[in-house]
Amino acid sequence: MSKFTSVIWPKVILFGDSITQFSFQVNGWGAEIASKLTRKCDVVNRGLSGYNSRWARIILPRFISSQNSEDNNIAAVTVFFGANDCSLEDKNPQQHVPLQEYSENLKEISRFLTSAGVSADRVIFITPPPVHEPAWEKECILKGCPLNRHNSAAGQYAQACVQAAGQCGSDVLDLWTLMQKDGQDYTVYLSDGLHLSEKGNQFVAEHLWRLLESRLSDLPFILPYWGDVDPKSPESSLLCDQ
User: Fold this and answer.
1) Helix, strand, or coil (residue 153)
2) Helical ranges in the chain per DSSP H
3) Mean pLDDT of 77-96
4) Mind listing the pLDDT tens digit for each residue in 125-184?
5) Which of 63, 67, 75, 199 sits in a 20 to 30 Å window from 235, CA-based?
6) Number of structural domains the chain divides into
7) Is 1 a domain residue?
8) Cα–Cα distance between 183 and 228 in angstroms, integer?
9) What sign does the dihedral 221-222-226-227 (CA atoms) show?
């Protein structure tokens, strides 16, 4: 068999909670980003439903190595936590993370990514979206618990995320602010008062792509276009270095 160079696919890692985990569903924001990057890189979903930044900081080294950073080949990482951290401590102590610790956790995640060869300019933080309390309270009642999140608290965590991103030298997608900009009806972006609706997924995909596109525009199309493959000697087209 002829010797050839392995094809290395760069990775974009989506790291977050349930809003990331479910983003690969039909019309999800993660699926939209993956579609735009087909044949350029692998979009890897590392969304973990119910997780907060405290747990995220602990488990991140389990799937990104800092030992052989050149092997990671990570083109970009999104860090999307806060919707669980901002739970009210007296109503949901298991998921709640104090505001200052949340900020420190985000900065620690950034420091670890740097040690793994992912520079700050390749990291995009995403704030929690707003919370529509009447809709989310209905979901809580169905689960037998009182309302455990307030939009004002989500806003405090969003602000902390923005500040942490700035201190780390990374971009941030401030969903909490953008979805409520100019007094617009942000409830259309939420399916249950907390998680994203189809419109919310479209909103995230559109705004996130604006930040990702500039970072990933130089990624080459991996392997030749089918019309460029030499039918008489496909090996000469398919096994050559691009």
Assistant:
1) helix
2) 18-21, 29-36, 53-59, 99-115, 133-142, 151-168, 175-178, 198-216, 234-238
3) 97
4) 999 999 999 999 999 999 999 999 999 999 999 999 999 999 999 999 999 999 999 999
5) 75
6) 1
7) no
8) 52
9) positive
Residue 235 falls inside a structural domain: yes
Q: What is the pLDDT of residue 241?
A: 66
What gap in Å lies between CA 94 and CA 189, rounded to an integer?
A: 26
In the numeric block, the tokens 């991996």 are attached to: 222
Among all residues, which ones are annotated catalytic?
Answer: 18, 192, 195
- Find the radius of gyration of the CA atoms of the chain: 20
- 215 Cβ contact list (under 8 Å, min separation 6): 75, 76, 121, 122
Residue whose tokens read 């419109």:
199
Cβ(29)–Cβ(207) below 8 Å: no
Q: How confident is the model at residue 1 (pLDDT cuts 50, 70, 90)?
A: very low
State how far the Cα of 43 lies from the Cα of 27, in Å rounded to an integer: 15
User: Does 5 map to a domain?
Assistant: no
Supply the range of the domain harboring residue 210: 11-239
| 3 domain-assigned | no
Measured in residues, the chain has a length of 242
Q: In the sheet that 123-126 helps form, which strands lie side by side, from edge to edge?
A: 42-47, 11-16, 74-80, 123-126, 171-173
| Residue 156 near residue 86, CB atoms below 8 Å | yes
